[in-house]
Amino acid sequence: MTLDTPIIRGSTEITEVTLRKPVSGELRGVSLTDLLQMDVLALRKVLPRITTPTLTDHDIGLMDPADLVQMATEVAGFLLPKSAKVDASLAA
Description:
This is Phage tail assembly protein. By secondary structure, the chain is an alpha+beta fold. It has one domain (2-91). The chain has helices at residues 32-36, 40-50, 57-61, 65-79, 82-91, and strands spanning 2-9, 12-16, 18-19, 51-52.
């Protein structure tokens, strides 16, 4: 995904971040309900585990809220079963 506002890390500017679907072990210590509700603290634990380039907790704390919501939406989508995604696309 392309960030609305780049993340500045030293002399590096991060403009794009790839999220991959987490495996169960990468969700340790986080409530799935919190992730589905886009809880910022839960996202700050999980996003460093599933982003390329790897975002740090500090990066996420400074992130534009619009970018965080976009990532949170993608993470929540990873947690839904295929049937729920099909139902949602039919309703649209």
